[in-house]
Amino acid sequence: MRPKVAIIDPNTLAAVGLKQLLQTVMPIMTVDTFGSLSELEANHCDDYFHYFVAMNTVLENHQFFSERRHKTIVLTLNLDTTSQLSEFHSLCINLPEKQLVRSLLMLQQHAHSGGKNLPPMPQVLQQKILSDREIEVMSLIVQGLINKEIADRLNIGLSTVVTHRKNIMEKLGFKSVSALTIYAVMHGYVDINKI
Predict the structure, then answer these.
(1) pLDDT digits (tens, 9 = 90+) for 64-103
(2) Is-contact 73 88, C-beta < 8 A?
(3) How far is CA 71 from CA 49, 64, 127, in A?
């Protein structure tokens, strides 16, 4: 059975968007969304590994979330740490996608470095899918290099880079560089500080 994460946010659009990102960042997790604390409580709330909760929901139900502080991540709209609830981990969601993905990865690495407290990845995700050259190309892609820069760095042709890039995305089933970035960081192919 997969571990579960809950998003508690009355803003359905924000909750659905965050759910999509979380499922990409933590593919071994099941992510459920709830519009209120009462919806969460009606669904075995203590079965969840983490709660990603809108700040106003935490403020309205402070005692519930304080008792589950280690599981609670407050969703904030700004980077000003003085306005956040200091006793909780927080995540600013008012960021461009690339920065939000980076923040999620940093939060995951901080709380679960080396995979501690996380269940093992499914066997299919542990297998080496990419060739060594594809891993090199992927690493440079997620570090922000364009195809020509990658070709120059690896001393290969531009069309070879394009072919590797296409093969990487097809093998992994990804459609965006953000998803590729998450995969590369989660599998240790690139350091998050190089992104």
Answers:
(1) 999 999 899 999 887 665 555 678 888 888 888 778 877 8
(2) yes
(3) 6, 11, 30
